[in-house]
Amino acid sequence: MSFSLSEEGLAELDRLLSRYPDRAAAVLPALHLVQSEHGHVPDEAIAWVAERVGLSPAHVEGVATFYTLFERRPRGRHHLQICRNLSCSLMGAEALVAHVSAKLGIRPGETTPDGMFTLSVVECLGSCGTAPVMQVGDAYHENLTVEAVDALIDRLRAEG
Amino acid sequence: METVLTTHFADERYRGIDGYRGKGGYGALRKCVSMPREAIVEEVKKANLRGRGGAGFPAGVKWGFLPKDLSRPRVLVVNADEGEPGTFKDRLILSHGPHLLLEGIAIACYALSIHRAYIYIRGEYAREARILEEAMEEARAAGFLGKDVLGTGFDLEVTLHRGAGAYICGEETSTINSLEGKRGWPRLKPPFPAVVGAFGLPTLVNNVETLCNVPWILENGGERFAALGCEKNGGTRLVGVSGPVVRPGIYELPANANLKNVIFDVAGGLRDGKALKAVIPGGSSTPVLRADEIDVTFDIETMAKAGTMAGTCGVIVIPEGTCMVRALSVLMNFYAHESCGQCTPCREGTGWLKLVVGRIEAGQGRPGDVELVLDVCDNMAGKTICALADAAVMPAQSFIGKFRGEFDRHIAEGKCPFGNRF
Ligand SMILES: Cc1cc2nc3c(=O)[nH]c(=O)nc-3n(C[C@H](O)[C@H](O)[C@H](O)COP(=O)(O)O)c2cc1C
Ligand code: SF4
Ligand code: FES
Known about the structure:
The complex is a heterodimer. In chain A, 47% of the residues lie in helices and 11% in strands. Chain A is α+β, with helices and mostly antiparallel strands. Chain A has two domains: 7-66, Arc Repressor Mutant, subunit A; 78-159, Glutaredoxin (3-Layer(aba) Sandwich), CATH 3.40.30. The relative contact order of chain A is 0.11. In chain B, the strands form two sheets. A five-stranded mixed β-sheet of chain B has the order 6-5-9-7-8, with helices on one face. The longest helix of chain B is centred in the C-terminal third of the chain and has 26 residues, at 388-413. Chains A and B meet through helix 2, helix 4 and helix 5 of A and strand 3, strand 5, strand 9 and helix 14 of B. The site of iron/sulfur cluster has 14 residues of chain B, from helix 15 and helix 17.
C-alpha cells in the first residue's frame, strides 16, 4: 500500500530535514508527523519514513517500537492516559483507574467497543505536584477527582 | 529571600519576549558578547553552579571539558526530558520562562563557541514544546538567535527535538542516540560526550534548570550567585513537593534549604492531620528517609552524609498508613518498564525486582524473598552501561533497609497488612 503525508506534512518534513546535519535524525520528528496526521503509525508508514530519511525499514521499525508514544495500532478516538507512578498513587490514582475502568467497562490497555476511548496506565508525566494526573491527547488534566473525570468523559463522549 | 529563576513567573507576560525584555531579559547576553569568552566561563566556575539534572556535576568544570581545538564544530544538547518520578520543575520553567532558557543557551553557546544547540524535550510536553517554538521564533526575529547574533557575527541555530515517551532518553548518552534518530540506548563511556557526542562531535549536555541560572550569574556575578547557597552549592534550587501536603508545588529555595522546613513550613505540612512516615528527597531513585531522618539540608554533601542524594530535589512525601512494599512495587514496575534492555544485569535485574517485590506485596512472598531482592541488587549496582540500574537499586535497598519489618510481615502473614492499597 502506498503512503504519504498531506502537502502540509510534506513541507513540514522538508523543513525538519534541513534542521539536522544528518537525515537520520529526522526519524522521530517524521514519526511524530505521521502519527499526528494518521492517529497512529501504520505499517506502510515505516518503509515510507525509512526511504525519506535514508535508513532501513528495520531501523525505523526498531525506533517506532522503542518509544511508547508511537502507536503502531489504531487506538480509541480519545486516549485516556492515567499516571500511576508514586506521587499520583499517593493521591488516589489507583482508585481513579478503577473508577474509569468500571465506567467504561474496559481494563487498562483496552479500547471501548465503539472505538471512542482507550484507557492506559502510564509512568510519571512530570506533573507530580498536581497529582493525580491524566493526559488525553496533548492535554494534561491535573488535580483530578472522580467527579472531574466523569465530567470530562461525558464531555468527550458528547463531542464524539 | 532572593530568587534567581522564578522571580517573574507569576507575570503572564514574562512568557513573551516583550515581557521578558521588560524585566531586563537578554541584558546578560548583551553584556556577554562584549566580554572575553573565557571570562564568561570563569564566572560560571565562580558561581559554584552544580548540574540540576540529578548528578550535581559542577557546570563550569563540565564546560571546561570541551576540547580547546575549535576546528571541529561542537554541540549543545539541552536536557528537557524530565521524567524522574517526583520531578516536575523543568516543566514550570518551560511554561513560564522559555526566554530564560533561550538566553541561558545563547550565553553558554557564545562562551563555548557552539553554533548548534538542540533542546531535547520529552514528547508528552506538547504544550511546553509549542511555547518554546513560539519563543524561539520571537528570539530569532529579535536577533538573539539565528544568524549574526546581536550583530557580532556569531551564528546560533537552536532546534527543538521532541522525544517520544522513554524515560531512559534523559540519560545523556541515550539523549544523544535518540537525537540522532536511534533507539534510546545509552552508550558506553568513554568516550565521553565532551569528546564524541551528538553526530560524532564534542557535545555539552546540560539540564534546563542548570542553563536557566546562567543569565543571572552573568548579570550579577558568580560570587553573588555562590553566596545565595552554601559552600560548593551555589544559588537556589527548584524544590518540588508532591504527595499529600497542604501546598504541593515548586518552590525556589537556597541550595541548602532544610528538608524538614520544606515539608512542614513551605509546603504547609501534611493534609488532613496525617502523620509523616517517609520522604524520598530527590526524585524516585534517591534513597528514602524515615520521618525521623529529615532534619537535613539539600546541599549535595549533607545529603550524601545522610545516606541519600539531593538528586533533582523532587520531594515525595509519604504519609503514615502507606504500605512501603506497595510504594516500592510501584517504583520497581517503573524501572522494569524503563530499562532499555541492553545490559543483562539491568534487564533481568529490574524484571526480578518487579516480580519479587510484587509477589511479596500480593501476599505470595516466600521466606528468603527479601534476601533474594538484596542479592539481585548486588548483582546490578555498578555493573551496567548507565546508571538506571543503580537508580532502581537505591530505592529497593533503602526501602528494605528502613522498613524491613513491613516486608517480613507481608511474607509471614501471607497478605498485605495495609489491604493492598495506598
Ligand atoms: C536513567 C537516567 C535518567 C536521567 N534523566 C534525566 C532527565 O530527565 N533530565 C536531565 O536533565 N538529566 C537526566 N539524567 C542526567 C543526565 O544523564 C545528565 O547528567 C544531565 O542531563 C546533565 O546535565 P546537568 O549537568 O546540567 O545536570 C538522567 C540520568 C540517568 C542515569
Ligand atoms: S543499565 Fe539498564 S537502562 Fe542503562 S544501558 Fe543498561 S539496560 Fe539500558
Ligand atoms: S507521579 Fe504522576 S505525574 Fe509524576
